[in-house]
Design goal:
D-Maltodextrin-Binding Protein, domain 2; 11 helices; alpha/beta; nine-stranded mixed β-sheet; globular
C-alpha cells in the first residue's frame, strides 16, 4: 500500500464511485422471468400518465407526509439527484430510504420489504419475478411495476488484460466456474478471479440461462466467486488484480480510470461495446473518460440492457397512490431529463 500509484488508484476509485456508483449500480438481485433484461423494440409499456405532465409542480394527487422506500443500489444517483429536486419543489412529500435488516440492500430485499409492509414502494433494477407475483397473491396483494429508465450492465477487467471481449456463454462459464483461466478464452495464462456483490448474485448467470433456454440447474453461481460488499471495494480489488473480472451498472463502470470495460457478444464475434468507441485508455483518464454507447444500449443491440422500475402494491389502502405518483414524477420531461444526467438513459 506504500506505492503512490496504488494510492492514487484507490483515491480515484473512491472519488469516482462516490459520484457515479454511489449512484449507481449496482444492480440488485437475480433476474427471472422472460424478457426481463432485453428491451422491447416496440413502445415502452407504461400505465403511468407522467409523460403527459409538464414538470414536478404539475404532478397531481401528491400525498402529504414522509414515505418509506427501498430497493436497488443502482438507484443511488437518482436518490441523490432526482429525489432531492422532487422534495425541494414539492415539500409536502418526503422520501426516506430504508435499509433491509441483516442483508445488503438491493431490488430483492426491497421487494420483500414491500410485501411485508415495511416500505411504500421500491426502486428496482430488474423486472418482477414470477415467484414474487405468486407470493404477493398468497398474501392477498397485487404487485405493479412501471419502467422509468433504461440501464445496462458493463463487464470490467484489469486494463492489462488483452482480450477483445466476451460472449454471453463465456461470461456465464466464468461465473459458474467452468472457465477458470483467461488462457481458455484466448488470454494470458492467468487465473480468473470473478468478483460479485452479494446482492448481485446470479444476475448474469440467470440472464444468460433465460436467453439460451437453459433450465434452472444451469444457473448456479460457481464456488470460485469472490464476494465483495460494495462496488468501491470491488473496483479497488479489480484495479490491483490482473486476472479479475467484475460486472456492475454501466453508469458505475464507465467513469473508472483503473479498470477496462469489455465489449460483449450475444453469440459469435458480433461484439458490442458498452462504451462509445473507441475505448479511452487508462493513460488518458481522467482528462478523458469513456462514455456509454447510448445508441447500442437504447436499441438493445448491447446484450446486457434492461429497465429500471418503480414497484408498488395495487389497491393497498391508498399506498398505490404513492408509488404511482413517484413514477409520474420520474416520467415527466423534467424527471426524464434529470435521469439522463445521472448516467442512465431516459425512456425516449
Amino acid at each position: 500500500m506504500g506505492n503512490p500509484q496504488t494510492k492514487s488508484y484507490e483515491k480515484l476509485i473512491l472519488v469516482t464511485v462516490g459520484v457515479a456508483a454511489f449512484v449507481s449500480l449496482a444492480w440488485s438481485a437475480g433476474l427471472i422471468g422472460k424478457g426481463i433484461w432485453q428491451l422491447s423494440q416496440s413502445k415502452i409499456p407504461t400505465e403511468s400518465n407522467g409523460k403527459n405532465i409538464a414538470n414536478f409542480s404539475h404532478v397531481p394527487n401528491v400525498a402529504t407526509g414522509v414515505f418509506n422506500y427501498g430497493g436497488s443500489t443502482a438507484w443511488a444517483s437518482l436518490r441523490l439527484a432526482v429525489d432531492s429536486v422532487i422534495q425541494s419543489e414539492r415539500p409536502e412529500i418526503q422520501f426516506r430510504y430504508v435499509q433491509p435488516q441483516n442483508q445488503p440492500p438491493g431490488s430483492s430485499p426491497g421487494i420483500g420489504m414491500l410485501l411485508e409492509g415495511k416500505v411504500d414502494f421500491v426502486q428496482s433494477s430488474r423486472s418482477l419475478r414470477p415467484e414474487e407475483y405468486q407470493l404477493a397473491k398468497q398474501k392477498g396483494l397485487k404487485l405493479k411495476q412501471i419502467p422509468v429508465a433504461v440501464d445496462s450492465i458493463a463487464v470490467a477487467v484489469h486494463p492489462k488484460l488483452d482480450i477483445p471481449g466476451l460472449t454471453l456463454s463465456q461470461l456465464q462459464a466464468i461465473y459458474t466456474g467452468k472457465i477458470s483461466n483467461w488462457q481458455e478464452i484466448g488470454g494470458a495464462d492467468q487465473p480468473i478471479t470473478a468478483y460479485s456483490r452479494p446482492a448481485s448474485t446470479g444476475e448474469i448467470v440467470d440472464f444468460i440461462a433465460l436467453k439460451t433456454g437453459q433450465n434452472r440447474a444451469n444457473r448456479e453461481m460457481g464456488s470460485n466467486i469472490k464476494f465483495v460488499p460494495t462496488a468501491t471495494q470491488a473496483l479497488r480489488q479489480l484495479a490491483n488484480n490482473p486476472g479479475g473480472i467484475y460486472y456492475d451498472s454501466t453508469a458505475t463502470i464507465m467513469p473508472q480510470c483503473t479498470v477496462k470495460p469489455l465489449p460483449i457478444s450475444e453469440k459469435g464475434n458480433n461484439l458490442v461495446a458498452p462504451y462509445q468507441p473507441p475505448l479511452v485508455p487508462a493513460s488518458a483518464c481522467p482528462k478523458k473518460r469513456n462514455q456509454p454507447n447510448v445508441k447500442a444500449i437504447r436499441s438493445a443491440q448491447y446484450p446486457l440492457t434492461h429497465y429500471l422500475y418503480v414497484v408498488f402494491l395495487e389497491n393497498n389502502d391508498g399506498k398505490e397512490q404513492i408509488g404511482q405518483v413517484y413514477a409520474n414524477f420520474l416520467l415527466t420531461p423534467q424527471g426524464q431529463k434529470l435521469i439522463s444526467k445521472t448516467g442512465f438513459l431516459a425512456l425516449d
